[in-house]
Amino acid sequence: MATQAPAASTDSSPTPDAIVVRFAGDSGDGMQLTGGQFTLSTALAGNDLATFPDFPAEIRAPQGTLFGVSAFQINFGSRAINTAGDAPDVLVAMNPAALKVNLPALKPGGLVIVDTGEFTKRNLDKAKYDASPLDDDTLAPFDVLAFDISARTLEAVEPFGLGKKDGLRCKNMWTLGLALWMFDRPREPLHDWLNRKFAKAPDIAAANIAALDAGHAYGETAELSAPLKQVHLPPAPSEPGLYRTITGAEAVSLGLVAGAQLAELPMFFGGYPITPASAILHHLARLKEYGVTTFQAEDEIAAVCAAIGASYAGQLGVTSSSGPGIALKTEALGLGIMTELPLVVVNSQRGGPSTGLPTKTEQSDLYQAVYGRNGDAPMPVIAARSPGDAFEVAIEACRLAVKYMTPVMLLTDGYIANAAEPWKVPDPSSFEPFPAKFLTEPRGEVLEPYKRNENGSRPWIKPGTPHMMHRIGGIEKDATTGNISYDPANHQLMTDTRRDKIANIPVPDQEVAFGETTGKLAVVGWGSTYGPIKQAVRRSIDKGCSVSHIHIRHIWPLPKNLGELLSGFDRVLVPEMNTGQLKTVLRDQLLVDAESLTKTSGQPFQIAELEEAICAYFDGVKGNEGGEVQANEQQLPSPVESE
Amino acid sequence: MNAPVKIETTLKDWETDQEVRWCPGCGDYAILKAVQRTLPQLGSDPANTVFISGIGCSSRFPYYIESYGFHTIHGRAPAVATGVKLANPDLDVWLVTGDGDGLSIGGNHMMHVLRRNVNMQIMLFNNEIYGLTKGQYSPTSREGTRTPTSPIGSVDHPANPCAFALGSGARFVGRGIDVSKNLPDVLNAAHAHQGAAFVEIFQNCIVYNKDVFDAFAAPKGAEGQQLWLADGEPMLFDKGEKGLAFDAENLHFTVVDVVDGDWQAAGVRVHNVKNRVMAHLLAELPFGEFPMPLGVLYDDPAPTYESAVIAEREASVSGKEANLAKLLSGGQTWTVDGTAADPV
Ligand SMILES: Cc1ncc(C[n+]2csc(CCOP(=O)(O)OP(=O)(O)O)c2C)c(N)n1
Ligand code: SF4
Ligand SMILES: [Mg+2]
């Protein structure tokens, strides 16, 4: 790329092995679509990648406004990529508002491409620019490519007789064509895709293809004049195999389907639309042939209750929501815990409390998952760390639910749900099946629906089974007959039993994700912070810091070796997108002096800010003399939110 | 799909070993007996029968029936039951709820289970009070009801359960009285109906709302205020000496005297269980001026939710193969061999 990256935020090698591009425009400009298709072409080119779609909560925000800006960032390279990248090398800004909102993120010396056709007085006013940034020194620190994309698009689609409004809709394809040229990508897959997408409207398909081709051709001719250069990133080394791109929402859906198959059960999925969880319901609604029944309930309470009913009747009940909906499900989760029925609960976390930031990411429902129910109501909690990881974690959730007859909480978040990454397609037969067993005959003289097996699990008895009639419910149960019992000693016994059943679930030993198994500093994360923490730790190690990355999947119960592992480090730092929730759990469970690095701006951690926090622990590291964790400027609201 | 195979049972077969814990004299006892009498009549199989309830005195019901039973949480039984029916449509599901459970906290779920038309029998025990929590007024309590939370009388307008059910799209609406010998007939009809069958049962809470229904439900002397409806039969009450005629011009019922049993001459209307408009009028008939309509107010089956879900699933599954490996590798893929990617 034209830019020389600052040492702190990318690798020190002179030829770039990774590039960050951000497409930004009005929510109506189709930036998410452009980003998605660019992602696919990147994946097909064999680069590793990570994406970050960032869009407003409003469906159709007023055109040209700052809060209506929608952006899609992609980081891709010829090496392993774990995050969507900190600062973009290239910013494509389709209007003044997109420029205003996104320019502060652009790397010094980065390339900014703007559509001058949109820099009208009206749009400048809406973006709160007093003077056009194209005419003053706003863009002086950057390379600028400013030209009338709108006019060129209209020119390209003219033969197809589209009106101006429809013609301008092809602008995103024009831009995509230019981006394809910039990174030396073939256009054919896009042609095919457009022809498929607009199969019923061949004119529209042809116009879009013409726009795409024109953008591509423009790159070729404009190359002569700097700053536009074509860049070819060689493929990233990766394990041999078959790959595809996957978002977290897709991965959770596929993992649930696989989990139900491994349990040899039909799946019942109860949901109620909520951002960013709806995508899972959308995916599963199309997978009926896999034994999936989806039920769009009247609310989240009905969704979880119907799932509990389905589990009671012998299917694998699953429900999914985001924080506000999980709050509504809480009472029913207690019922699932009391009646000891399998249930998988997926929480795609978003900014809270209350309605919070529906389209932004956060990890602030950990307390809710671990501690957030009335009564002593333990349930396993596990967390996905990346889109691809969500597949395995969903299978694990199904396994735990069925084997231990319990509700299980799977935590993911808005970032994982929407972000895409290349995913090595797993072989379904590589997973150990965990077929569900139903009790079909009494085990002795009397039917004892609460008599446990070696795992501490009670039997699963389907209604409809002859001679096995019994009653269950949310009132305390007698330890073996399951009949109502108000006996004090029995309640003590049952409370302890429920606690121990979950606490004793064997959880794989905690491993170190990156770095040595002992050292000065352990950076402990969970969930979607995996990528930025890993890169920050890698860079800090390169600088000579004795730091390791530990990333926790099983949050409740915690891996048994975790306390010992952490005792091998002098300090423990827990970066989280909340006010320190895992930190509290670690302190509570392990008595470790864990410290917090928190961020709740609705944006994922940047590598650089984590790196800074890590290095602050190390005296003598250049630029980090002293040793105190710096104030975290990223906690300040981004320009979009301050609007 | 209700009870595909008829099983021979007696009332005793439907009793559990659990001690029944309602207050002595509570109307729930009579309903329990009526249900235990009805189930053998239906030929129900205890192993295939599931009683699902919410929370309340009424919702203790499943513990006392020797079948499968699920005592869930307050108001949510319709949702749990919907999941049960979607997972196994062959189960014969009875829902037990109260006026608080079914119309207050669970009013939303009640509306949706009715409009979806999930095949089950829904018994709403209406005692016009929150029994289990010791006698607060409920959504069906009449205005002026004095309770611990309304010491000088409630000011809320009460809901009418049958009108609510009809308004929600119910295809079967019936009414009974706890101690009435006709209750099993209403339950039989509800069971015969394919789809959500809603039955309001007036139930005497002897402790917190004693005898509020006496004007039409007292064991002796109130029969004259009961209008037992039967499909194709004239709407007669008070030993056949009175009947309901319809004032077509003003769209309302009137009470007429029937002389010498000549109901036709008196203009008494014949009940048609498929007439939805009449069902609405009957459900809302103001008591006092009119008798209390009981029995089957409305019965006009429509396709059930489960059958629609199954049909949709079959249609979308046909011709498709459930190949997990193929599903996982869906969309555009590429292969990597050695260390270099090789776009396909
Ligand atoms: C979430 C919740 N809120 C409140 C209660 C307390 N509660 C139990 S039963 C009940 C009312 C029951 O009234 P109704 O449904 O009419 O049943 P009845 O006891 O009269 O048969 C209430 C408020 C509860 N168990 N759960
Ligand atoms: S409180 Fe009322 S409804 Fe409850 S058991 Fe006693 S009499 Fe029956
Ligand atoms: Mg009541």
From TrEMBL, chain A:
InterPro entries for this protein: 2-oxoacid/accept_OxRdtase_asu, PFOR_II, Pyruvate:ferred/Flavod_OxRd, Pyrv/ketoisovalerate_OxRed_cat, Pyrv_Fd/Flavodoxin_OxRdtase_N, Pyrv_flavodox_OxRed_cen, THDP-binding, Transketo_C/PFOR_II
Protein name: 2-oxoacid:acceptor oxidoreductase subunit alpha
Keywords: Oxidoreductase
Native species: Alteriqipengyuania abyssalis
Residues in Pyruvate flavodoxin/ferredoxin oxidoreductase pyrimidine binding domain copies: 266-429
Record domain Pyruvate:ferredoxin oxidoreductase core: where: 521-584
Domain Pyruvate/ketoisovalerate oxidoreductase catalytic: 28-216
Pfam family, one: POR
Lineage: Bacteria, Pseudomonadati, Pseudomonadota, Alphaproteobacteria, Sphingomonadales
Automatic annotation (TrEMBL), chain B:
TM spans (from-to): none
Keyword set includes Transmembrane helix: no
Superkingdom as given in the UniProt entry: Bacteria
Protein name: 2-oxoacid:ferredoxin oxidoreductase subunit beta
Residue ranges, annotated region (Disordered): 136-155
Naturally occurring in which organism (per UniProt): Alteriqipengyuania abyssalis
Biased composition (Polar residues): 136-152
All copies of domain Thiamine pyrophosphate enzyme TPP-binding, residue ranges: 55-201
InterPro entries from the UniProt entry: 2-oxoacid:Fd_oxidoreductase, THDP-binding, TPP_enzyme_TPP-bd
Keywords, ordered alphabetically: Oxidoreductase
